Amino acid sequence: LSVRNLNVDFRLDDGAVLRAVRGVSFDVPANTTVALVGESGSGKSVTALAVLGLLPKANALVSSGSMVTYRHRELLGLSARELTALRGAEISMVFQEPMSSLNPVYSVGFQLCEGLKKHLGHDSRRARARAIELLDEVGIPDPRIRVDAYPHQLSGGMRRRLLIARALVHRPRLLLMDEPTVGL
Prior knowledge:
single chain; about 180 residues; alpha+beta; two-stranded parallel sheet; 7 helices; 7 strands; about 35% helix
């Protein structure tokens, strides 16, 4: 991944413009870890959302001089369909707040199995087995029991690990995390 001169502004309701990201550039070479560190509100999350094309179209403005290249492919010009195909399969993101990223009415297993069935063609039995493996891989205790739990029945740390497991469903080449996870 290569990000060059990323600039992101947001149009506010009163017509003003908020400058969220200014001239950010960095590279993430294959098989490495890179951390973006900064104060709250410094643009780390906005940068990650821009990489994945997840900024709100209604008010987010990415400058024309910005470049986000992944495996020699410019991401900022991709269509919604092309970005959707890339997300999960190649690049996944673990969002900052687990409870806003997880659906409270679906079990942990359902939320993991959904992607396994839809994108990888697993049948229900194989998807459930893989979901249990993923829960085990991220260190959730009693994965055979937790697979039937709902997000509110998990601790904050386990919900965070669930998001990581969900991001790993497709075995992406690039994983973006919106905040560091201590203890994994």
